[in-house]
Amino acid sequence: MDPEILKLLRLQMLCPCIGESDIRTRTLVLFDLLKEYRWDAKAVLVLGVLAATYGGILLPVHLALSDPVAASIATLNQLPIERTKFRPWLESLSLLVKAMVVVTKCIIRFERLPIKQVKLDNNIVGETMSSIYMATYRVVKSSLACLQHIPYFKQTQQATKSRKTAGELSIESRRAAGELSSLGYQLLNLHTRLNKQVDDSSKQIEEEINQRLRNITTGTHKDNQDVLHLLFSLQDDLPLQQYSRQIPITELQEKVILLLLSKPPVEPLFFLLQQLYDHPSNTNTEQNYEILWVPIPSSQKWTDEEKEIFDFYSNSLPWISVRQPWLMSSTILNFFRREWHYGDDEAMVVVIDPNGRFVNMNAMDMVLIWGVKAYPFSISRENELWEEHGWSMQLLLDGIHPTFETWVKEGREICIFGSENLDWVDEFVSLARKIQNPGFQLELIYLSNQRRQDERTKAMEESSILFSPTLQQLFWLRLESIERSKLKRIGIESSKLDRVFEEVTKLLDFDYGKHKGWGVIGKGSTAETVDGEEMTERMRKIVRWGEYARGLGFTEAIEIAAEKPCELSHTVVVPFEEALTRRVVTCEKCKWPMKRFVAYQ
């Protein structure tokens, strides 16, 4: 709102120019002044001036009986303090103001309808618009009428000083009250008709939007613009924002759009951001996509706290968001819940390709697992990724942290282990350090139970093992996403025969009360899950082997330790030259490493 226009509006309403004494002329002058504003804005601005003016007059009167300062202000402004002398007029003023407010709300409701985006019956639109024009005119005219009564209001006090009779004051009060009451009833009658017309228009619009929404996922679109306009731009040409910058729908043309539907951000959403924006491997500029955050509150109405949370995150995070989500159409929000099965407890990612096709109705798990490798985030791409990847260290750790990704790419031996038994953890770490001394290259990663991250996690943080509490949460989120993705892709029955699903479920459902811990060992494209007690038992054997096991990989040594040694000892003769190149000699039968002796012939 231009401050100069507001000053001119207030001046015109309170101090009319010469020759503009009648209300009709002054009303037309105000319409000319506000010609650039919408009809609802015209009514709201005029009511704002009226409220500010009468607020300054009536507030001292209202407080005069209990506040001496207010009483003094009322006396200085020649305002009456005894309400009984002007109660009929005050009641009529209240009636008129309430009528103007309900009519203005009705005008606002109509102006917020997406008239331009849908096809309505021309007769209904024409009749409703005529009523809108008339209603706005009546609101402006009635506001000026109220302001004309300010002198009468002060004359009530002056009449008391000049000792007018009670009868004379009563007659004047009733006459003034009658004028305001007449305007109030006219507005109320107009509101009854206008409200029905707005209801009819709203119902017709909702029916057409619902019909278009039902066809949105199966219909043919030339690009993503029609889809995005229908969902987010029914009432606003700049419905989106990135940080504080307002964005039109056209900026998303020719891009893959990930519609992120959620409550205010929680941990999975931050992990999603890391996977799609912050991760060091995300350097492919040809992957043209954007996250569009659609925050949805738990209830139908936004609270002040939810608005503050939205403002903080929308101005802090790199994704695009709906600019004023509390103004989104309830029809659209109900469609998300009813047709897309959005639930308040879980976020979902709906993917729209540049042609406006819905290629994935929930890519959340896919993104959490694969990150930008999942581009263009379609179901067919997800199937391709699962064909390429099995149970491996790469599947477990890729994308969680750059260090882990480096380990996987370099083919290092990695051991992920988890337990709530600190004594077992201490024993495990001690055995691992002893194994590393003879030359085993081994990286350790400790995980606590995702639901019990307390002093156990803090204790492990003090060791040299890499895995912060935040990364632990991301790891478990990743496993949960793998489990859901597998279930969605192959179903419950087939998943029982899928190794990835079996191994992930084994970790997620691990009974920490029954077992001491668990371990996953491997490198790159391999991984093997071992029970914790079995793991430490095999590690003790490797420690006993000492330098004779040097040359074996840790994973290979763990596998060999599971085998029983030969019952009878035997000797293998290896030529000296060959022995120099072989770092370890293993038994052909049990595969255990053999002790070395030098024999001279």
UniProtKB/TrEMBL annotation:
Ranges that cross the membrane: 43-65
Domain Sieve element occlusion C-terminal: 380-601
A biological-process GO annotation: phloem development
UniProt xrefs under Pfam families: SEO_C (PF14577), SEO_N (PF14576)
Keywords tagged on the record: Membrane, Transmembrane, Transmembrane helix
All copies of domain Sieve element occlusion N-terminal, residue ranges: 9-218
Protein name: Sieve element occlusion N-terminal
